[in-house]
Amino acid sequence: MSTPGDFTVDIGESPVNSSSEKAVSKKSGVVNVSSFVIEWTPFGLVVSYYVFSTCIYMYCSEGLISVFWFIYMCTNFYIAGATVLEAFMSITPCREARKIVTQADQKGWLFPTPHDRLLILDLLIVAYLPNEKDIIMDRALYALEQIDYPRDKIRINILYNTPTPMEPLETELHHLMETHSHARVFKVPNSTSKADNLNYFFTLDTGSDLIAIYDCDHYPHPNAPRWAVERFIADSATDVVQGRCVVFNAEENFLTSMIAVEFDKIYAVSHPGRATMWGFGLFCGSNGYWRTSLLRDLRMDGSMLTEDIDSALRAFGRGSKTVHDLNVVSYELAPTTFAAFWKQRLRWAQGWAQASLKHVKMIYNKPINAIHEDYQRNFTARFGVLSLLLIRELSYYLVTQYTCLVISFLIVKFPTTGQELWKLVYFQYPVSQWLFIISIICLIATIWITNQVKSEFISRKTIIIFSIQYPFYLVLSATIGLYGHARQVVKYTNWNPTSRK
């Protein structure tokens, strides 16, 4: 008679089990090949795009080349013009923000609203533990101990998910609820994303008036929640307040310093300027404050790679009012390696492509389920959607086509002197001179305005370096945009979290 051990051995060596193992192994091999194809097909598509485009220009006639050149220089002029216009439109919000700070300082930092009349705030810190295990305790303790808001009016909620137990870290996190009365820690069951974490919280009846969302790497300024809440109290029509994100590890290396300048340009110049120019703002994923009722109603779409941008556009589609407040400041980490930067920006690029395809219809359709009864999407807002969702996505092709055109020049008639190179790249045709000069003026004006509102972590020298390498940055950004489109074509769905240290 066989013992249980013998029976197990016999089954393991049976032909049936051997066949099953081969089938599983074969299936695993097919999956690996499929994953490899999906992973590398976008790369092949982008490389083929560059090679094919460059070859086409090498065989075009001079007359056709001049037409393409004019189109691409006009495109460059449009991008530069739109950027500088946003920059000039941001001057007023920046001045107003400084004026409010000055007034608060003169009053001894006494805010307009008494403590007992403040709105109840749920502040969410969303974390993916294997990726952010080294920083989550630090950020949680900072939020619990440093944020200046009445303890009976705020709850600091730590929402995390992890595929494997992380001890003793998880026990330490839950212990925070014993030492801090306003702490709440949630290990979200069956969660695989930030969207899952947030949607789980939205099912809870916490009784809050507002919800603030922060990624785990953020340090909110101690007064940031108060500035945001005062904005809601001052204007009952406000539905979302998006704050300014500042990179605080700018001095770590060249990459982080360039990202720091980029973030100052985006959050202190472009976002408030665009909101003033087009009449609408957008939630940007972190350091954003929502009215609880609106956020619970919208939730997060877990099928979107950038669920935050999707929720922002859905909110705008329903007529919500989003304002950008430069005094609601939060400090965050920039990726420290190019590999981490590349993964982050590819995710953003594909996410924006998804969101643009889904919401571009707002250019022409009517608002559905509008939050405010009198809301009508006017021509200015519709053109803003056109610029943000369609022209921006198309600009990736125009920028890279200009790059391919220049590469073809270098191959066909390689310059032997610096003067020939200068003429080749910028001054092929007389009209190019004016378009180029105006574009440079626009860039200088934008950089000058950015310098006026730069954060304490970057210098004027860093801004100058950023402006010098800006053309290369545009080409890199456009290439990443194309890569995002290629990933969307092959239905790439892997979510690559940004490395945090």
Automatic annotation (TrEMBL):
Record's bilayer topology term: Multi-pass membrane protein
UniProt entry tagged with the keyword Metal-binding: no
Keywords: Glycosyltransferase, Membrane, Transferase, Transmembrane, Transmembrane helix
Alphabetized InterPro entries for the sequence: Aspartic_peptidase_AS (IPR001969), Glyco_trans_2-like (IPR001173), Glycosyltr_2/OpgH_subfam (IPR050321), Nucleotide-diphossugar_trans (IPR029044)
Main subcellular location of this protein, as a coarse class: membrane
Compartments in which it is found: Membrane
Entries under Gene3D superfamilies matching the protein: Spore Coat Polysaccharide Biosynthesis Protein SpsA, Chain A
Glycosyltransferase 2-like domain location: 211-446
Transmembrane segments: 30-52, 64-89, 394-412, 432-451, 463-486
GO BP terms: proteolysis
GO annotations of cellular component type: membrane
Segments of this protein annotated with the region Disordered: 1-20
GO molecular function: aspartic-type endopeptidase activity; glycosyltransferase activity
Keyword Transmembrane helix: yes
Official protein name in the record: Glycosyltransferase family 2 protein
Organism of this sequence: Lophiostoma macrostomum CBS 122681
